[in-house]
Amino acid sequence: MSDTRDLAGDDRVVGGGAALVGAASTAALVAASGLALATGRVKLFGIGWIAFAAMSVAGWFGSRAPRHHTGTLVWGYGLAAGAMITSAAVFLLPQAMGQHAVFGGFGVALGLLVGYGAHTLGHRLAHMDLPVDRSLAELTAHAVSAGAIIGIIYGNMPELGLLLGVSIVSHKGPAGYAAVHRFAGRGGDWSAILLPAAGVGVAAVASSFLALPASGAVRGVVFGFATGVFLHVAMDFLPECEIGSEVHESLEHEGDAHELLDRLRVHAVASTAVGGLAVFLAWTVVA
Q: Model's pTM, two decimal places?
């Protein structure tokens, strides 16, 4: 999950240009939103701005949070993971299987493997000397890729409900919080988060104009791939309450680490259950 847990390895920060980048990114989202409304893509308009608000507001709070915030991390990650796993399994997986049972399954496997490969190779790229801040680059790439997948899905199946997109971008809040908490701790400007925050909506609107072939096999692979990618991201968000994990490093006080982590594991399970249940209850309301 390169958009949250791999962000602490770069000592460089975005300087005074962060505000300018953030303003330009927001302007791009406004322009994309105008195009979305003009072409009847109202759901993508809503998803883009919900993702933007979730990531930017959570990022602002993350920049002002105390150094230790273990409970917030566990519940943020858990709620997002539970919501995303449930949404992908309930809304995306049936669509992939409905297009083509076999190729839909291959698409799911491909999405999971590509997600794992991209995450693993991202660790290697993190050690390269890049001209930009690695944290911001990784976060933006993740946001754009997620937005592109969402845009293709809704562009080809506009009858899908808004709940799916909102649930899938639910992880943007915890991602923005954790990323800016680290970024600001190294002297970075929190407004740099506006670039990836806007990237979801901009990419979603742009990719929504890509029409997939009518072939059930092709559509099955595409929808299965989207399902696999989002499942990979969701499972990567499952709180890890182990020695050496981010949760362990964020413990609020010294003490018996094993005992503290045992208690946090209860919170991890509860948060994921609540996240999944929230999607189910929302579905019963809108169904």
A: 0.78
